[in-house]
Amino acid sequence: MLFPYLKVCPSCLREEENEMNGKIEMRAFSVLLALLLVSVVVVSTASAQTGIDAIAEEELADSVIITPDFSSQDIVVSPSLGEDDLITLVFPESWIKDRNSADYSDRVELVDAHVLLKNECFDEKTGLRYFSPVQVTEAQSLSVLRIPKKMFELSLAMNDGSISFPMKYFTAYPDMQTMLSEVRVATPSEPEVYSPENARSASYVSPPLHGEWAQYNVNSQYAGRPVHLEGLIKPGSFTNNGHEGAIYHEREIYLDGGDAIEYIFYYDEDYYGDKVWLGAAIYDNSDSFQGCPTIKWFDATSRHWYDYDFTISSAGTYYIWFRDCTTGSWKEHIYYDNDDPSASINRICGSAEIYADVPVQYSFEAITDRMIDEYVRTNDGLTKLPGEVFSWAAYTGEDRTYCFMNAWIASGRITTYHECDSTL
Q: Which position among 79, 197, 214, 220 has the lowest Cβ density within 10 Å, counted as fewest Cβ atoms?
């Protein structure tokens, strides 16, 4: 049986009217691609319904994050990590190939990773400090890993002295000289503050929230509990002709202790100019996930792809990282839940949300083509595909005006499509 939860985007159907002109926009292409994937990937009905058996659809609809309207709040944009917060590991390419024990071709897993710090080097010309498990010659092809120090330490602690990272975190260089000339020492910058003063009309009052959620629950038949989730996200197209309400596209992660994490693409071009913010929000035992979370904002106006990485440590600390796939820079948000931390993830979902009156006065359209969950690490030390650990639950949302979600699993990865449109 084909995906029972894949939908056809209403706005993409509207694109048929433009085919006479030979114009099919990327959003139509994205959904057509999804439909093509559906034709070759089969999912059982039993698997798709596992989550619904655990939590009734009505309960799911009442247990989602209500993201506050940030339209009247300052946005404090945090800088990327500086060199003091990063670690650089340099490997001969052949050394990695000989010792990589990962089960997946696009990952690197190394046991006894403490040996990676055996040789510490400092290049006076560039100011780069790096570590290597062996002495590196000038002519060797290299594979270089630059990640947050705390991410490296956390991987060692959670994997019995081993490390496990996607291969895309590693950069290949033909030799040492090229590596030293191309790696840029990261210089920290000061936070920037964007104030809503004079940005909203004097009569602005936060309008009602509309939203749709595509929800997945942890498969009750899977023994391990997910403690780590990594994936890929990218802000998409956005047009706005005067609408003042906030527009959010999100990946929400619900934890077993009543906490929640969300990654937010905040589209508000009319408000801040041509700006898209990437938010990392943490709700600590929030009442029905309402109220203002602990949040860090980052500037995603460049619309690059971002890798995301979320981990719960055994001490109950929540680690969130974003990697700019174009620049290689890292963003970080760490939260210490000292009183009643959660231990694992029990639900994830994608959402499209907007604060808007009905009917709206001005037109708008915001599309995020893809948020992709790529890998899960469980508390039994295994790396798994999200489609093995999570099962489809339901589309929910009491008032879905202007909002549309689509979700599917392909090659074990969970992908969601998000759209807010004044014509929906």
A: 197
